[in-house]
Task: structure prediction
Amino acid sequence: MDFSELHQFFNDISSRIGNVADQTNNLSLRLQTDIAQLKGELHTTNILLTIFIIVNIASLILNYVKREKNKAS
Result:
């Protein structure tokens, strides 16, 4: 193996390492995007659950008031 073949061999290895680094970076960016979307969806879910809890508590209070009003009558 002469020097030019050895040089080409190391260039190939360097190129492959660069490709792995690029693919890893692309995957990382994709994962960050997916996580950001999940965070947005979780925020929306939390808002909807809060509204659901408030409506249920209001319903319980109204039912209690109606029941007490009927007992008083």
About this structure: The CA atoms of residues 2 and 60 lie 86 Å apart.
